[in-house]
Design brief:
The protein is mainly β. The protein has 1 helix and 4 strands.
């Protein structure tokens, strides 16, 4: 459901808060959108800690529902 030209965390104003669930930080790598379907950033989650306004939050996201 992502729209072409959607917002990426790299383009947000420095004073806008950004939240990520703490479980994201335990991944080997993450994929971040770059504004189009053809431009993605693959990185260690540590890249998020360098963003201004970034907060790592325990329990922010809910557990996914088991598949039926």
């Amino acid at each position: 459901g992502m729209q072409i030209g959607g917002v990426t965390v790299f383009g947000l104003p420095a004073d806008m808060p950004i939240w990520a669930d703490a479980r994201v930080m335990h991944r080997d790598r993450i994929i971040l959108g770059g504004g189009s379907r053809s431009w993605k950033v693959i990185s260690s989650p540590a890249i998020l800690e360098a963003l201004p306004g970034m907060a790592i939050v325990e329990g922010l996201a809910s557990e996914p529902r088991p598949e039926a």
